[in-house]
Write a structure and sequence with these properties.
It is a single chain. Helices cover 37% and strands 27% of the residues. It is an alpha/beta fold and 240 residues long. It has a domain of 161 residues: Rossmann fold (3-Layer(aba) Sandwich). Strands 6-7-8-3-9-10 form a six-stranded mixed β-sheet, with helices on both faces. Strands 2-1-4-5 form a four-stranded antiparallel β-sheet, covered by helices on one side. β9 and β10 form a beta hairpin. α3 runs parallel beside α6. The protein is globular.
Length: 240
Amino acid sequence: MDYLLKLNNVELYYDHVYALKGISLQVGDGEIVALLGNNGAGKTTTLKTISGLLAPRQGEILLEGQSLVGVPAHEIVTRGIAHVPEGRKIFNRLSVMENLEMGAYARRDGGLAEDLEQVFALFPRLKERREQVAGTLSGGEQQMLAIARALMARPRLLMMDEPSMGLAPVLVEHILTTIQDINTRLGTTILLVEQNAAMALAIAHRGYVLETGAIVLAGSAQALQADPEVRRAYLGEGAG
């Protein structure tokens, strides 16, 4: 398998707190990879470190073999990584259309109109509300906008942090189905942090389990679904 993203022994400290303890993981080109773990396990920290928002103390972060360590966050976007942050972080006072345009701010190529149509095909509701102020959208619509804004950067790798958080179950299913569509229809590689472990593993190819800043389990989605410890801790099932 050709790995689009590799982390090798990445360590990170928040002041004196040892937050990432030698993280090593790989994301293959075209894969959906799930990153699972309880609150405080280091999932968001891992994504922020890949994005250049946090600086590792040691270790390698490689995108197609090229180091991202020390590269400014805005340049990492231009290299092909887009980040949908936890809590959506849309521009509330801008319109839907203006948010989408902000997603493409770093691009110097053509094809924006084509990408906009792809986004509207994935999220028809956003097309209906393109002139609406983003802060007045529902929670589900705001999550759609956050994903769509990231897609306007035309990323090779889309990183998503808790896209189902705070959404009704029917919307959770819709968002996760859309993530599959982004992967299959657009060919976008996805690194997914998701509190709903069962649904994340249902759409992922592989997964990693983080505990207190360290990877404790890794394997195919099917293997993790069958693992008694994963079932007990993250899928709400008995270990038997």
